[in-house]
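Quick question, first post here. What does this chain look like in 3D?
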Amino acid sequence: MQDIAALEGRITAALERISKGVDRLAATPRPMPPVPTPPAATPGASAGDAALRAQLEEERALVTQLQARLRSLKDREPKGDLTEKIEKLTQQLDVQGLELQRMRRTNITLRDQLASLRQAQMSGVIDPHLINKSLVAELDALRALRLTEVAEMDEILAALEPHLTPTSN
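> Answer (accepted):
Ran it through. Tokens below.
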């Protein structure tokens, strides 16, 4: 146990020294080293070096082309479409949230009505009013379930709609 405590102390001390060193390095500004440029091919350079340099230049050209294509794809995506999509999704989430709240309320009411029916049954008194109230609560629960399912289907249809509409080429 003492070994673990000693090792923990040593690790803590080492981490503190590292932290102080990093702070010192961060406090002293250092100029960025210049990017090395590949030296021109010298007559004494091997053919392998020249081939590697040529491949490197090809890769750099390819990277710049890919970066340009990526920028053009990003620019091609209109910002308005993204905000419209975000607004649609937010509205769908709001509708679903409201439907879920309605479901919770009706389930609580249904639970309360079932509890009162159980108590009435245990006491041996059958009250038609309690039965009617419980049936109304059950119907409300079914309606809320139906509205929740409709909201989910609307969300699914909204997600599928762009894939189902024919595109003009």
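The radius of gyration is 35 Å.
Residues 79-164 form one domain.
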